[in-house]
């Protein structure tokens, strides 16, 4: 949730700059809201989508941010409706390279980072990491006052 709050502040700045040229769709399930994620993991992905897919286009476009829990995995997806990837995804800029390196450092051999053209156009970046909640199920029930 903290990461989503920070991302919302960043998106507010971009909405002020791009006005009606930027449409945002957030689809975050409740299980994802309590997951531990690296600080600022989404912002460079969203920034990249806005910078390369939305801002250069007169008509603007949309960015979709998905966060879903799938059992013991957390999936984060940033998708845009721009022109798609124009070059080799392995030769990306500094922000994406840093994100890839951070994930490898934090989740060696237990994460997935992929970039691809979306099935209906645009680009899609997906991050998958082990799901770890900010508290255990026991701590959650104790905090809610229901010790059962």
Q: What count of helical segments does DSSP give? A: 5
The helix content is 25-40%
Query: Which stretches are low in confidence, meaning pLDDT under 50 for 5 or more residues running?
Result: 138-143
Give, in spatial order, the strands making up the sheet with the most strands.
Answer: 1-2-3-5-4
| E-strand count | 5
Shape: globular
Largest sheet: 5 strands, mixed
Into which percentage range does the β-strand content fall?
Answer: 25-35%
Q: Overall mean pLDDT score? A: 89
Secondary-structure class: alpha+beta
Question: What is the radius of gyration?
Answer: 16 Å
First and last CA, distance: 26 Å
Give helix and strand order, one letter per element, not per position. HEHHEEHEEH
What does this structure look like?
There is one protein chain. The chain has 148 residues and is of the alpha+beta class. 36% of the residues lie in helices and 26% in strands. A 5-stranded mixed β-sheet has the order 1-2-3-5-4. It is globular and about 45 Å long. The model is unreliable at 138-143 (pLDDT under 50).
């Amino acid at each position: 949730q903290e990461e989503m709050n920070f991302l919302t502040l960043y998106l507010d700045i971009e909405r002020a700059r791009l006005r009606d040229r930027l449409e945002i769709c957030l689809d975050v399930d409740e299980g994802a809201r309590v997951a531990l994620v690296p600080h600022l993991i989404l912002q460079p992905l969203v920034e990249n989508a806005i910078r390369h897919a939305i801002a250069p286009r007169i008509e603007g476009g949309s960015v979709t941010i998905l966060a879903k829990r799938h059992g013991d995995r957390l999936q984060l997806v940033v998708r845009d409706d721009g022109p798609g990837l124009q070059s080799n995804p392995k030769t990306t800029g500094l922000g994406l390279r840093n994100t890839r390196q951070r994930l490898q450092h934090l989740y060696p051999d237990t994460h997935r980072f992929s970039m691809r053209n979306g099935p209906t156009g645009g680009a899609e970046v997906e991050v998958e990491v082990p799901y770890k909640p900010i508290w255990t199920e026991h701590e959650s029930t104790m905090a809610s006052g229901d010790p059962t």
